[in-house]
Amino acid sequence: MTRARTRARTLRAAAAGLAAATLVAGGVVCAPGAGAQTNPFQRGPAPTATSVQAQRGPFAVATTSVPAGTAAGFNLGTIYAPTDTSQGTFGAIAVIPGFIEAQAAISWVGTTLASQGFVVFTLEPFSGFDLPNSRAAQMQAALTWITSTASPVRSRIDANRLGVMGHSMGGGGSLEAVSNNPQLKAAVPLQPWDLFFSFAQVRVPTLMVGATNDFIAPPGSNTNVFYGQIPATTEKANVELAGQDHFVGTTYNPTQTRYAVAWMKRFIDNDTRYSQFLCPSPGPGGALTAIAITCPV
Predict the structure, then answer these.
(1) Does 168 participate in catalysis according to the annotation?
(2) Which domain holds residue 100?
(3) Does residue 138 form part of some domain?
(4) Is 167 one of the annotated active-site residues of the chain?
(5) Active-site residue identified among 130, 158, 194, 214
(6) Of 107, 174, 179, 246, which is the active-site residue?
C-alpha cells in the first residue's frame, strides 16, 4: 500500500511539472515583474511629472572627451553615457549649438538627457559661423562615428535608434538632418533658425521649442513656419515657451526639458509611458504661450 501511495505521488508531481513546462513554453508563466516589460527599448523606472522635467534623471553619467581630428566630418565633442550596463543598449543623440556658440552652450543637454537613459554626443562646430546645412552634416558624421567600431561607446548604443537636437542654427541643422535622413527616429530643435529650406520632406517625428520673446528666431517666421511645412502625416509638435528668449535653449528649463525628454523617449525608445506628458495638450497658459501637437499615443 505504501509503495502504491509513493508511486501515485510521483505521478502527480510529474504531471504538475509537465503542466508547468507547457505553460512556460506557451508564454503564460513569467518571471516576477516580467509581465510589465513589453517594450525591449524601455529604459529606467516609470516616469512621473516631476522626473520627466528634472535636471537629472535616474541614471549616473560618465563623460568622454573626443578631441579634434578623431574622425572626418565633425570637429570635437563630448560623449555623455549612462554608467549602467545592466539594461542593454541605449539610443544615441547628436547635439550641436548655434551661431557663434561653443559646445558649452548645449552641455546641459548632455547631462540631462544622458541621465534619462540616452548616449548623448555634444559637438563643437568647426566654426561658430557654420550654416545649418553644415551643422546637419556634422551631426550625421558624429552619429556615423559614434556607432562605428572606432567609438569607445559603440557597444552601449543601438545604432537603429538615433536622434538629433540643436539650438538656433543647430536647431535648423537638426531639421535639415531629419529632412535628409528619414532613418533617424526623432529630432528636437530648440529655437531653430533656418532660411531658404523647406521641411516638406520631413518624415521623422519632430518637436520644436520656440520662445515668445525670441527676436533672433521669432516663432512667427521660424517654428510656426517649419511646423506648417512638415507634413500632417508626420508626428510633430510646436511648443512656445512664455516669457523666454532665444537663449533658453542654452540652459536647463523644466518645461523645455519635459517636452524634449518625453519626445525622445517616446520615439527613440518607443516608450509609450511618456505619451501622457505630450498629450492631451494643456493648451496655452502658464509656462506656454502656444502649443500644437499631433498627439502620439
Answers:
(1) yes
(2) 47-293
(3) yes
(4) no
(5) 214
(6) 246
Q: Quote the cell numbers at residue 72.
A: 572626418
d(CA 234, CA 205): 6
Overall domain count for the chain:
1
Active-site hit among 151, 168, 174, 179:
168
Quick check: is 25 in a domain?
no
Is residue 223 assigned to a domain? Answer: yes
CATH number of the domain that residue 252 is part of: 3.40.50.1820
Structural domain contains residue 93:
yes
**How far apart are alpha carbons 202 and 188 in whole angstroms?**
13
Contact 207, 237 (CB under 8 A): yes
Residue with cell 507634413: 231
Residue pLDDT tens, the chain, 297 long: 444 444 444 434 433 333 333 323 333 322 323 334 589 999 999 999 999 999 999 999 999 999 999 999 999 999 999 999 999 999 999 999 999 999 999 999 999 999 999 999 999 999 999 999 999 999 999 999 999 999 999 999 999 999 999 999 999 999 999 999 999 999 999 999 999 999 999 999 999 999 999 999 999 999 999 999 999 999 999 999 999 999 999 999 999 999 999 999 999 999 999 999 999 878 777 999 999 999 987
C-alpha 254: how far from chain center? 16
What global pTM score does this model have?
A: 0.86
